[in-house]
Design brief:
The chain is an alpha+beta fold. It has 2 domains: 96 residues, Malate/L-lactate/L-sulpholactate dehydrogenase, four-helix barrel (Hypothetical Oxidoreductase Yiak, Chain: A, domain 1, Orthogonal Bundle); 193 residues, 2-Layer Sandwich (Ribosomal Protein S8, Chain: A, domain 1), CATH 3.30.1370. It is 40% helix and 19% strand. It has 11 helices and 12 strands. The strands form 3 sheets. Strands 2-3-4-11-5-6-7 form a 7-stranded mixed sheet, sandwiched between helices. The chain has a 3-stranded antiparallel sheet with strand order 9-8-10. Strand 3, helix 4 and strand 4 form a beta-alpha-beta unit. Helix 1 packs across helix 2 and helix 1 packs across helix 11. The protein binds NADPH dihydro-nicotinamide-adenine-dinucleotide phosphate and 3,4-dihydro-2H-pyrrolium-5-carboxylate (2PC). NADPH dihydro-nicotinamide-adenine-dinucleotide phosphate (NDP) binds next to strand 7, helix 6 and helix 10. Its EC number is 1.5.1.21. This is Delta(1)-pyrroline-2-carboxylate/Delta(1)-piperideine-2-carboxylate reductase. Pfam families: Ldh_2 (PF02615).
Length: 339
């Protein structure tokens, strides 16, 4: 998209537009507000594989009856440092928000707490779930599993989802240190974007329906599969994420849920795991300074930039000038919002 062709929209206006679309498609008012802020935040930050690109998928899943936009999550306090949430077949973010303040109370009381969400649909980036904890001085790690489209290292059948992991830590004098990455060589959303744009992928990311290596995103989407990043090492991380997000929470593994009866379903029905830590309990009252120190060492040693930096720069520009939407994307949103 050329900058001159872009339509710039303010964050609040984008949230209002997305909320209208969610409500029109059967999402309750409070759930729609949470989802709209999340999705608009991804677009604002340049997380384009999980911004407005996902709106047709959200709508399609809602229309198929696969996800309950009105679900009211149930929070269970199961131990001094352990909360469980049954999302009741709804989206994960409202389930997370239902437990969030209670989770922080537990972290403050115990130094650490775990949140296990099950029966939930996560269709977004993970950084919005962890970054706000770091803004409040806490360290947070979260993982979520998705839909089976990743073949285990050396294997022949997709078992894992693209299973992202996100981590956030306060960092003195700067925005928090945050990374958010799929455990597959590439996120499924980026494969869809490449297929749509007619771009090839880098070698080593996926296989076609015969298990042969391919750089063609369409061959991956049409019966092929993705590979874990970094061979057996990414494989173990993907497996750990299945264990934490599904076995531990009581959610489904990425290959376990059956959405075949819901034509148009796109949102994975799995689970999400969080661990949140109060770094003050480490007894090192200079925690955020120490984080800044190690980040500076990495930059001084030649790394171009830290994870999260591109996002924060994109956010800054979007807040100053508006969020750039291509005319096609703008039209797509208007069509979804119009009765
Ligand atoms: N809900 C779900 O089930 C799933 C969601 N996803 C989401 O998809 C998104 C994309 O994942 P993925 O494709 O793996 O992300 P990327 O590979 O684009 O980025 C991963 C991380 O690395 C950072 N990074 C990228 N390039 C550099 C660099 N040159 N130097 C330093 N840091 C860098 C990014 O920071 P920055 O953002 O600043 O560029 C980001 O924190 C994620 O938000 C993830 O949560 C993925 C799979 C499933
Ligand atoms: O990009 C991705 O891999 C996914 N995003 C939501 C579900 C899977």
């Amino acid at each position: 998209m050329t900058e001159s062709a872009a339509i710039h929209i303010g964050f609040d206006d984008l949230v209002a537009l997305l909320k209208t679309i969610f409500v029109r498609n059967g999402v309750s008012e409070p759930n729609a507000q949470i989802l709209a802020e999340n999705c608009a935040g991804c677009e604002r930050d340049g997380s384009l594989s999980h911004g407005i690109f996902r709106m047709p998928g959200y709508v399609s899943s809602l229309k198929s009856g696969w996800v309950d936009g009105k679900a009211v999550p149930e929070v269970e306090d199961v131990a001094p440092a352990f909360l469980r949430v049954d999302a009741k077949g709804g989206f994960t973010q409202p389930a997370f928000f239902a437990a969030r303040s209670h989770l922080i109370e537990k972290v403050k009381a115990n130094g650490v707490a775990v949140l296990a969400i099950r029966r939930s649909h996560h269709f977004s980036a993970l950084w919005p779930d962890v970054e706000p904890f770091a803004d409040e001085g806490l360290v947070a790690l979260s993982v979520v599993n998705s839909m089976a489209c990743v073949v285990p290292h050396g294997g022949h059948k997709a078992v894992f989802g693209t299973n992202p992991i996100a981590f956030a830590s306060p960092r003195a004098g700067s925005a928090p240190f945050v990374f958010d990455q799929a455990s597959s060589a590439i996120a499924h959303g980026d494969v869809q974007i490449a297929a749509r744009a007619g771009h090839d992928l880098k070698p080593g990311m996926g296989v076609d329906r015969n298990g042969e290596p391919t750089t063609d995103p369409k061959a991956i989407l049409d019966g092929g599969a993705l590979l874990p990043f970094g061979g057996h090492k990414g494989n173990s991380i993907a497996l750990m994420i299945e264990i934490l997000s599904a076995a531990l929470t009581g959610g489904y593994f990425s290959g376990e849920f059956d959405w075949s009866g819901h034509k148009g379903a796109q949102t994975p029905f799995t689970g999400q795991f969080f661990v949140v830590i109060d770094p003050e309990r480490g007894g090192n009252h200079a925690f955020a300074d120490r984080v800044a120190q190690i980040c500076d060492l990495v930059l001084d040693a030649g790394q171009d930039r830290l994870p999260g930096e591109r996002r924060h720069n994109t956010r800054k520009a979007a807040l100053a000038n508006g969020i750039p939407l291509s005319p096609q994307n703008h039209d797509m949103l208007m069509a979804l919002a119009t009765p």
